[in-house]
Amino acid sequence: MKKSERHEQILELIKNKHLETQDDLVSALREYGLDCTQATVSRDIKELRLTKIQTEDGRYRYAVPEGNDQHVVGKLLEAFSNGFVSSDFSGNIVVIKTVVGMAPACAYAVDAVQWQEVVGTIAGEDTILVVTKSLSASKKFLAKLDTLIK
């Protein structure tokens, strides 16, 4: 398992679950079939710059910080939404059409998010070639794009 895949799963988990401890996070990852140690999760928390926030009931849970990195990714995703025209796929190849001149920024946004389905991107002026891991990964990636642009 790649670190980027684990990081993506961690970010997804903390968005959807109230995880209070590193042990909670390790257990949640194991439920998804990702076997890792508390030491690995501790390093991941540092690399992702996760913080703890107080919940309404006074407890604490992990959350994504409201810092510069998240701001930059948010801006890139906003640029992607504004530049997106259409998408289609064939097998593990996804082709995204953008407004002229926006493909490099949109491809960079896809790279910055580090979706586990994506192997890599190549951008022209108004077209992005996205290579995914499989046909099913292409479908999952397009579903995420659909959610993003709405």
Commentary on this structure:
This protein is of the alpha+beta class and 150 residues long. The protein folds into two domains: 3-63, Arc Repressor Mutant, subunit A (Orthogonal Bundle), CATH 1.10.10.10; 73-149, Gyrase A, domain 2 (2-Layer Sandwich). Helices cover 51% and strands 22% of the residues. The protein is built from six helices and six strands; from the N terminus they run H-H-H-E-E-H-E-E-H-E-E-H. The protein has helices spanning 3-16, 22-31, 38-48, 68-83, 103-113, 135-149, and strands at residues 51-54, 60-63, 84-90, 93-98, 118-123, 127-132. The strands form two sheets. A four-stranded antiparallel β-sheet has the order 3-4-6-5. Strands 1-2 form a two-stranded antiparallel ribbon. A hairpin with a 2-residue loop joins strand 3 and strand 4 (93-98). The chain is elongated. The mean pLDDT is 85.
